[in-house]
Amino acid sequence: MLDFKLTQPQQEVQPRPVAEQSDQVYDLIIIGGAPAGLTAAIYAGRAALKSLLLTGPFPGGQVTTTDMVENFPGFPDGINGAELAQRIQRQAERFGTQIVMDTVTKADFSTPPFTVRTDSQTYRGRTVIIATGAVPRRLGVPGEAEFFGRGVSTCATCDGFFYKDKRAVVVGGGDSAIDEGLFLTKFAREVIVVHRRDQLRATKIYQERAFANPKMRFVWDSVVEEVLGEKTVTGVRVRNVKTGETSVIEADGMFVYIGMVPGTKLFAGQVEMDEWGYIVTDRRQRTSVPGVFAAGDVQSPDFRQIVVAAGSGAMAAIEAERLLAEQSGTT
Amino acid sequence: MPLLNEEIAEQVKQELVDLAGPVRLVMFTQEFECDYCAETRQLVEEVAALSDQLASEIYDFVVDKDRAEELGIDKIPAVAVIGAEDYGVRLYGIPSGYEFTSLLHAIRTVAAGKPELTEETLAALEEVTEPVHIQVFVTPTCPYCPGSVVLAHQLAVASPLVRADMVEATEFPQLAIKYQVMGVPRTVINETVHIEGAAPEPMVLGKLQEALEGTEEKV
To answer: How remote is the C-alpha of B95 from its chain's centroid?
Structure first.
């Protein structure tokens, strides 16, 4: 069954501002072009703040990889994730926020106006909202990076086809791991789920489907220590965390679903973070640096919902506006 | 039965309403149509009907061999998206699923004849003196893939020396094997340099330059 999707891949962003323009100080710089940042941009635009949004390499963020979003209010029939992101972006542009496809490489929050750098430009802003989201966590074991895209993947829907009649290892025990693992059984001869605990974390419905699937096999209490292979992946070495024993599972590929990691490396040492690298904010989205706010998945792993990200983006923008008003003495 | 339902057809119409210039969708199939050849032909005809600026041309890969060679078409189903000139924008395999987006973007970019790339990229492309062939391997179920295809097509429109293909990997498994495609998107530049995953514009430009440096060394 063929389907045809209309989405907007990283397009229709305005050209970078020319050098003389970037010398000026923005009221607000938003880092990240996914629902949190884009919603902040809508509010900033409507508040007539001189604001700039830097999208990062993949405008729209995680939501663009979701086929059908069925829980965002206002879309009773669901909406394609990329289309939703594109619509929020159009709304932000309508209210005048300058949206630029550029990736921040350095930030300095020591004294306002804060400095945000990309490869080619330096921007300054009186306030900043960090909305860089989260990306899939990697295992960080030997072989993983070397074989990425050549046997190691984080997208079964993208790459499942290449595992026709092959064996694939899925690492993880949550909803994503099991859902994508089940998808892989359509192609693969065998799907081996390696999980560090002795039971799955995935919701009951996924567990039932997984245990009922004859192509799925489980290796409990185990972690992957190395991806093996010369030119292609031939297997993974796993260690049983209870017995310490290591063994090799023969496989043609590995799919990793072990949660997300916040995109906060850039801001290390500048704003307070928790032990997992999430930015700590108060209930008004304020970080440890006055004038710097954070919104979306970058500051909370607890919900990971588009509507929550959008909501926190709105809160951050409103707070930024309040702070700017206070600073200029108009309140 | 149309491939595009009414709702999608209407959206496509809106997408194409302000096309900057005429575009021809030149499609190659053959008498005994290959897997998805018939569907690709039908898709091209349906899309072409949605804008006055669009026209479809259907050729037989075997009978119209000269035409295929002229356009550098070496496998089917193939679609060449041609505007005021032929920028080297190609799609091999049916642009369904997420890749439908790539087809529409190719049409828009070719119609405008003007890519949406940064000044830095355009300046760097001016320096290119050797032919560049970009192949982006995709699957229709890959949400990250159209970004890479659209970028490659923009590069093709920007430079007369660059041509860029979308290659739907599931329809050309022999090429997937040849280029060791185990994940998509995978971009292959001049057969030598490859990029795994969706890469931003500066990185793709860097890899393109790397591929050309390789050529110079060999000479």
So the answer is: 9
